[in-house]
Amino acid sequence: MRGVSGYVWADSPLHRMGAGAKLAGLVACVALVVLASSPLELLLVCALVAALVALSRVGWRSAARSAWGLRWFLLAVLVMNAFFFGAEDPVISVGPAHLTVAGAAQGVRVVVRTLLVVVLGTLLTATTRPQELIDGVRALLRPLARVGFPAEAAALAVGVTVQFVPTLLRESRQLMRAQTIRCGTVVSHAIMRRAVSYMRLLVPIFVSAIRRADELSVAMEARGYRLPPSRRAADGGEREMHA
C-alpha cells in the first residue's frame, strides 16, 4: 500500500533500517553510480540497485514509477548525446548532427546513471516515513550545527519538500484534467500546441505552491513554532549576558 508522501507500507530490512543509515547509504550508492564508467561497472551497480529493490519489497512498479515519468526527457538526452557528442567516425550525418557510436554509448551511460539515481531516491522515500527522514537529516547535520550550520532549518526544509511534492503532483494532475475538459486532451495536439498547453499549467501550479507555502507559514506561526537559535547566536547571547 502506497502512502500519500510516497511511503510504501511493507516489512523489509530497508524499512527497519534507520533513516540516517539510509541517507548515508544513498550518498554512497550515488557516488558508485557516478564513478562507474565501464559497462561492467555499470552492470554491477545495476545489480546492486536491483538487489536493493528486491530487498525493500516495494515492488518494481513503485520503484520505477518516477523513472517512467522521465521517459521523454531521458529519450531527449539519449538523442542529444548520440547526435552531438562527437563528430569522429559518424554513422549518419544530418547537417550539424552526427550520429556516432561514442555518442550513443555516452547517451546510454547518462540515461542509465540517471535512472539508477532516480530509483535510489524513490527507494529512500518509499521505505522512510517523512518524520523519520527529517530525524535522519537532523542527526546527520547535527555535527555541523556546532559551527553555525542551520541543521534544524535544513531538516525542516527536507520535511516540507517531502510533504509538498506529492500534493503539487496531485494538483498538477487535477489541472491537466480540467484543461482536458475545457480544451481537449493535450496529447493529440501538435508538438508546439502541446508545449504551449504545458506552459499554461506552470502559472497555476506556481500560484498553488506559493499559496500553500503561505498557508503553511501562517499555520506554523499560529501554533507558535520557532526554530531553535543557532549555537553561534546562543554563544553570542551568553557572552553578552556575562559582559
Summarize the structure in words.
The structure is a single chain. The chain is an all-alpha fold. The chain has two domains: 1-128, no CATH class; 129-236, no CATH class. Helices cover 75% and strands 2% of the residues. The chain has helices spanning 13-16, 19-35, 39-56, 60-63, 65-69, 71-84, 101-127, 130-145, 151-183, 191-222, 231-242, and strands at 92-94, 97-99. It has a two-stranded antiparallel ribbon with strand order 1-2. Helix 2 runs antiparallel to helix 7 and helix 9 crosses helix 10 (191-222). The longest helix is centred in the C-terminal third of the chain and has 33 residues, at 151-183. Residues 231-243 have low confidence and may be disordered.
Task: Please outline what is shown here.
The chain is mainly α and 243 residues long.
Fold topology:
Layout: H1 13-16, H2 19-35, H3 39-56, H4 60-63, H5 65-69, H6 71-84, E1 92-94, E2 97-99, H7 101-127, H8 130-145, H9 151-183, H10 191-222, H11 231-242
Helix pairs in contact: 2-7, 2-8, 3-7, 6-7, 8-9, 9-10
> What can be said about the biggest beta sheet?
2 strands, antiparallel
Rg is 23 Å
Q: What is the CA–CA distance across the termini?
A: 59 Å
Counted up, domains total 2
Broad shape? globular
The helix fraction, in percent, is over 70%
